[in-house]
Amino acid sequence: MKVVTLPITPGVGRLFTTLLNPLVADLVAYSLLGELRIMLNTVGIPKLDKQAEAPEVLLQVYRNHLDGLGIAKQTPCFHDGSQDFEDYFQDVLKRLLQKGHLTQTRMEISACACGRVEIPTEALARVAGEYRRKKLIRLSPPGFICEVCKSILISTKENVAVCRFRMPEQVSIFPSLFEKEVDVTVSRIMSYPTVISRNRREFSQIKIGEYTSSADTDFRWATFLGYIIPETESGILVASATTLNQAVKVLMLDQLLTGRARCSIVAHPLIRIHDQQISLSGLSAEAFLSLCGLPYVSRTFLSLGLRWDTMEGIVDSGNLHLIQKSLPRRMWVNSVRQSPIMLEKVQKLFGRQTILNLLKKFRNRDSLTEDEEFLLGFLEPRM
Ligand SMILES: [Zn+2]
Description:
Elements: E1 2-5, H1 20-32, E2 35-40, H2 55-68, E3 77-79, H3 83-98, E4 102-111, E5 118-120, H4 121-129, E6 137-140, E7 143-146, E8 154-163, E9 173-174, H5 179-191, E10 194-195, E11 197-198, E12 205-208, E13 211-215, H6 217-222, H7 225-228, E14 235-240, H8 244-258, E15 263-268, E16 270-274, H9 285-292, H10 295-303, E17 312-316, H11 319-325, H12 343-349, H13 352-364, H14 370-379
Parallel strand pairs: 1-2, 1-14, 2-3, 9-15, 14-15, 16-17
Antiparallel strand pairs: 4-5, 4-8, 6-7, 8-10, 11-13, 12-13
Bound molecules: zinc ion.
Residues 112-114, 116-117, 146, 148-149, 151 line the site of zinc ion.
């Protein structure tokens, strides 16, 4: 089984808490004896991000982060900036067209100046009124504005390409805490046509008969699952509490293409740092990893925030010193497990208290239980 991350936008200077996503994917692969795959989103990154660099440069930056996090060097990293991905995407469009999910139509579209927002005007009030952690559109009388460029959205009648989704067979998610949010997301995606063309940005082409336009880069990367996981295989997609809506769309698209529910989602909470004597919360990934020094330290520190019964895990910055003082005084044992450990069990094993207890045992040179061996096996960097 393949375990994949939702496409991650790499770049220098991103907050270190963004490292949690690949770490959780590593944990899921470790527990279920799956193969980890990392997917990066390197195109269509908003200019405000200042990281409009070549995919290869972004890939290298991210490889360095993964090294600092102790993720195995041979872990395959894919990205959407290659010609290979473009060929794959064009094939996906062809298949969606053949299956009748892709159509061209004319409708009122509301768009902003920067090109991030291009949505059906009929969906505007609804989208702006939704509860979401990260919002792109906000009601600001007399109109609606784009949160990126702050311009007022202007409505015009346009030719667009739309993807018509089908009600998914099933979207399984772990932990069940997120089930309700999945249902809400599915009904949102089903409630209005998804416009996948972009008239204000120039990228990858969509052709439907005589009609041509650019593709929405978010839609483009959302088709990635078949690129990484062969259609005959099953897999797990790892997302965070804020990217759950994208994960659901990825799975729904995959079901349109493969005709079955072959993948499920694991969602993890966000981490908030409670700064004490040392201030960590504003650190970039690079600064954090160099402060940690060893992959074991970065893995253990982030793991302290892994709680699956809440939307947000809180970690005290002071724990970093505690971890650095509590290096296991023995050689790492790369034990080989034959059978997977179910995520329900992992959920119970991971937690601030169990990890702190483990550190205490290191300092006291106490022997470890089987569960603690499992935990330690994950905290050790991959070779
Ligand atoms: Zn905008």
